[in-house]
UniProtKB/TrEMBL annotation:
This is Uncharacterized protein. The lineage of its organism: Bacteria, Bacillati, Actinomycetota, Actinomycetes, Geodermatophilales. It comes from Geodermatophilus telluris. GO terms for molecular function: acyltransferase activity, transferring groups other than amino-acyl groups. It comes from the Bacteria. InterPro entries: Acyl_CoA_acyltransferase (IPR016181), Gcn5-rel_NAT (IPR045057), GNAT_dom (IPR000182), GNAT_YJDJ (IPR031165).
Amino acid sequence: METTVVDVPERGRFEIRVGDRVVGLASYHVENGTMALPHTEVDPGMGGRGIGKALVSGVLDAARERGLTVLPYCSFVRHYIQQHPETLDLVADDDKPHFGLATADR
């Protein structure tokens, strides 16, 4: 199953696609060097295949490449960051307590 994560800035979201089919999305907004991530969703028929993880990984990679910090308002994104401590640096230290990530790097 070939998946690709594509930024669709005119729609304010990243999409994850299987072939040409959009099977998930992560909405975002960038302001002042910070990418807010309020929502992700994956087609329920695609659940359990790692699509959501691949989507969030692609979004966080893009944020890193662009030199942005992230605000993980979406609980799925927060959980991913907790499970992948190598991504914790993408959340500004001052923002970590707000998202329950203050102790995740210890």
